[in-house]
Design goal:
Elements lengths: L6 E3 L4 H11 L3 E4 L5 H6 L7 E4 L9 E4 L2 E4 L5 H5 L2 H6 L1 H7 L5 H4 L4 H7 L5 H9 L2 E6 L2 E6 H4 E3 L2 E2 L6 E8 L6 E7 L9 E10 L2 E10 L6 E2 L1 H7 L9 H9 L12 H25 L1
Helix pairs in contact: 10-11, 11-12
């Protein structure tokens, strides 16, 4: 099929984009990489009457250091982020996860902001934002605001964004020089969405866990933060954590679903094993070091 007719605009500033969105009254859709949107347009599952291309907005690409964290502009390509030295140094969890996002062809077009804003519950970028405690910057004609990633996702492909708003940046807080990266997922094929998976970071003070950030992929209608497991880990010695007990806590907030890829029970069982395997591997590597 071909897309339904629409007008195309390419604003040069955030203010111009916000004005277009406001005047469209909910009839406009943003496009950056278009890796998800273009199939939806072709299938007429999305039928905006205005397509707003954000790729020409000044300052909408790039990675910068800000106070206490690292900021990614929304139209930054996934391929560029994957090879960015600043992200490799300060947000290695994100770089690790990016290697599992689609394929190198799609990462050349796909954007960080597009993935975060879409909110696919089985995708890596939303889960990273939730796990790491990222803050999402938002703009509209009414002004600017920020929202924690953990408050941003409210349902499948549903976020706190209003129809006249757009994401202008994502800020990932620093986790310290000694933090550990946790990532594991199971997919049917490399590049597919996860059947289940987890991502996170542990900040250490000596051998003690000072901070924990963990989130599930494909274990509910949104990325799922493992809040109880995080709280239980803080203050514990990394080498003495009760992995089995933590895995039970990690599963408590999940609501896995049945679909044609896997059952809820499969996701729950495999997710628990992935959690235990990943946490034990991190503990053993640190202990050996």
């Amino acid at each position: 099929m071909k897309p339904a007719p629409f007008d195309y605009v390419a604003p040069k500033t955030v203010a111009e984009a916000c004005t277009i969105l406001s005047e469209a009254g909910g009839g406009a859709t943003l496009i950056a990489g278009g890796q998800t949107l273009m199939p939806l347009l072709n299938l007429r599952m999305s039928q905006p009457f205005i397509l707003v291309d954000v790729n020409h907005i000044e300052g909408f690409t790039g990675v910068t250091r800000v106070a206490g964290g690292t900021r990614i502009a929304p139209a930054t390509r996934q391929a560029a982020a994957l090879n960015d030295e600043t992200l490799a140094s300060y947000v290695p969890v994100l770089v690790r996860a990016l290697g599992h996002v689609g394929h190198h062809q799609t990462r050349n077009r796909g954007t960080i902001g597009g993935s975060v804003a879409l909110g696919e519950p089985a995708a890596e970028m939303p889960a990273c934002a939730v796990a790491l405690g990222a803050t999402i910057e938002i703009a509209s004609v009414r002004g600017t605001r920020t929202i924690a990633a953990r408050d941003f996702y409210i349902g499948p492909y549903m976020t706190a964004l209003e129809p006249d708003e757009l994401v202008t940046g994502i800020v990932y807080p620093d986790w310290g020089d000694s933090h550990l990266v946790l990532f594991n997922e199971l997919a049917q094929r490399p590049g597919d969405f996860a059947l289940t998976g987890l991502v996170g970071a542990l900040s250490l003070d000596g051998g003690t866990i000072a901070r924990a950030g963990l989130a599930w992929m494909a274990m509910g209608p949104t990325p799922v933060a493992m809040a109880e497991a995080e709280a239980a880990m803080v203050g514990q010695s990394l080498h003495e954590v009760d992995v089995a007990a933590l895995s039970e806590l990690a599963l408590r907030p999940t609501a896995p679903f049945d679909d044609h890829h896997a059952s809820a029970e499969y996701r729950r069982t495999v997710g628990k094993r992935l959690f235990e395997k990943t946490l034990r591997a991190v503990t053993q590597v640190k202990e050996a070091a």
